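Escalation from tier 1.

The customer reports that the assembly of two entities below gives different structure tokens on two consecutive runs. Tier 1 could not reproduce it. I'm attaching the input and our single run for tier 2 to review.
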Amino acid sequence: MSPVPAAARKSILVVSRHAHPGSSLPRSALDTALAAAAFDQPVTLLFQGEGVLQLLPGQDSRAAGVRNLRKVIDSLPLYDIETLYVDAAAASALGLPPDALPEGAQWLDAAGVQALLARHDHVLGF
Amino acid sequence: MLLHTVSRSPAHTALRDCVALLGPDDALLLLGDGVYAALAGSEAAALLDASGVTVFILEADAALAGIQGRLLPGATVVDDDGFVALTERYSRQLAWY
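Tier 1 run:
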């Protein structure tokens, strides 16, 4: 793909804040992030609120007949989505084990999330 | 400067999560079931009041909900044109639902 000029690049923050068995929003958040990355836009993903539950390891989606969301999340670096953040307060409140953090992802406190929301050109909530 | 829109009722986590993460120059527009957060005397209204955030409420949804005469003092009612004007004033928007 031909490189996109720097001026045409907009930083995009995708905020994913729903759990996935009950909603198609998490999948849409990932598809949006992947689409933006395919167009050479710098994408950051934030898992916030109950959205952190998407990160639980050991998901087995075969009986449900859908994609394994955690595997999709783990594959994001292959598509140049390297910046993943996880709301630490929500993870703690909902019991997400500390070792569920994907490789390269970082915990963020409330101040960190505020800074993230403030510094991106576009913010998309799912 | 971010315009946050909340369209879920205050019984859901959307409003609380949003308020916890507001930046200093951000504003909040309540629409859909989100308008119930502006019902004076509710816990959600107290939360909004304590946060100090600038609150806007979509007029048609507030009227539909029947809360137009019971709004949190200090909240500003906007019609559809006002909504559009807000999106011009705040170039970035984040929807909470």
